[in-house]
Amino acid sequence: CGFRKNRGGRPAGRAAPPPGRLSQRRPRLPAAGMAAEDEAELSLLECRVCFEPYGPGGERRPRNLPCGHVLCRGCVGALSGPERRRVECPFCRRACGSAETSDCLPLLQLLEVLGPAADSVPSALGRSGGGEAAGPGPAGLGLRLSLGGWGSLVNPTGVAACQRSGRLVVAHDGKKRIHVFGPSGTCLQRFGERGDAGNDIKYPLDVTVTSDGHVVVTDGGDRAVKAFDFDGRGVLAVREGFCLPWGLDATPQGDVILSDSEAGALYRLTADFKNGKLKKCQMIRSQLTSPRGLAVSQTLGAVAVIEHLKAQGPNSSSTRVKIFSAEMDLVGQMDSFGLNLVSPSKIYTTAVAFDKEGRVIVTDVSSQAVICLGKPEEFPIFNPLISHRLSYPVGLTYTANNSLVVLDSGDHSIKIYSST
Q1: Residue 114: enclosing H or E segment and its boundaries?
Q2: Looking at the structure, do residues 163 and 245 belong to the same domain, yes or no?
Q3: Quick one: where's region Disordered (predicted)?
Q4: Are strands 86-88 and 330-335 parallel, antiparallel or unpaired?
Q5: What are phi and psi of 120, to 5 degrees?
Q6: N- or C-end of the chain: fewer Cβ atoms within 10 A?
């Protein structure tokens, strides 16, 4: 499934320092007068693998991978092996050739501007709060707001919208794993400490918000599902023998549908989140192939899930979108091969959502686009909704006012589109 434990016990989807370099890590001290929040943002100037600060040249020079993640030149070399031919991103597992990496110009420019004045990092970054972005996209969608960015979000993996309050919740790799934005883009709350305590979050993979206002997270680090209120208090941790809980979404009734990538199964969780009690954990579908991204239609109760099919050769991995009715009967499916018949390029889907009319919307990281596949009975339809200004889209959701929210891991941001 692409996420397994190595001999050191660390999930392979989580970055580990190259051998022999861990002892080089130096403690990071906040500058005088710097708030803890500002000090945490300085981590964007460090390689997320070896935790060494970036520099303008040599081994510390920041390099972009094709997937959008950034490592220092030394870690790119260490991860590519002695022959330096192939690099596998330690965050998203996408493989590339060493020659495909490039200098991270925004970071290099930021280092040049800041020089030794590290205190100016937060103001130089421009905090989340997002600015209006110009220009409508295809199909009448315009980019209305962009949130997050360097330092605010780190390698985000999941996004969800609270239908009642309009808040957006993002799971990412920061010191506090859950970031809550208000409808206007302001940061309302950060919680979910990185650590080993019962309610800490080791490695979040996806997030959803239930109808009663609880934030539910899949934690691949300790194979659990964890629920919090919007104040960040942990209310429930479910460890029902999951192999690797990955994608999840809330049903209109307040249950949670969950995919287990390693077990190849879907589960339904019924819980009294307010009182921290699990009522039922039921497997509702099995014999799937590495199911990950998942969405529930809020009008029909249908469930869409993305399967990641096993590669039959180099660079031949593909995905398949399956649609189930509310009763979990298979009503439609489309794989990469079938989509290639109606699309100009190979499609590799990472996230899925339903719009208000029940159409299936997916992200495609190959073409860096968001695509409408139509209703299940209409497959195959290929209608690009957004085909520019995206780097590595990994998450999708709709707000109550039908705005489309795209999580872009490539530039660590949330992009909100609405009809123009």
Answers
A1: helix 105-114
A2: yes
A3: 1-33
A4: unpaired
A5: -90, 5
A6: C
Single-letter code of the amino acid located at 180: V
Opening angle at CA 260, ends 226 and 399, nearest 5: 60
Q: What is the CA radius of gyration of the chain?
A: 21
* CA dist., res. 182 & res. 169, Å (int): 9
- 91 and 232, same domain (yes or no): no
The domain of 157 spans 141-419
| Most confidently predicted of 18-22, 379-383, 406-410 | 406-410
Per the DSSP assignment, residues forming a β-bridge with 282 are 268
Q: How far apart are CA 144 and CA 137, in angstroms?
A: 10
How many CB atoms within 10 Å of residue 414? 26
- The model's pTM: 0.69
Tell me: cis bond preceding 380? Omega within 30 of 0 counts.
yes
DSSP code for 115? T
Q: Which residues, listed in sequence order, are joined to residue 291 by a DSSP beta bridge? A: 307
Bridge partner residues of 285 (DSSP): 266
Residues 126 and 187: their CA atoms lie apart, in Å, by: 13
Q: Measured on CA atoms in the order 217, 243, 303, 354, is the torsion positive or negative? A: positive
Residues 53, 198 within the same domain? no
Residue 279, φ and ψ in degrees, nearest 5 = -90, -40
First to last CA, the chain: 40
Within this chain, do residues 174 and 217 fall inside the same structural domain, yes or no? yes
Residue that is written with structure tokens 């593909």 in the block: 318
pLDDT band at 311 (very low <50, low <70, confident <90, very high): low
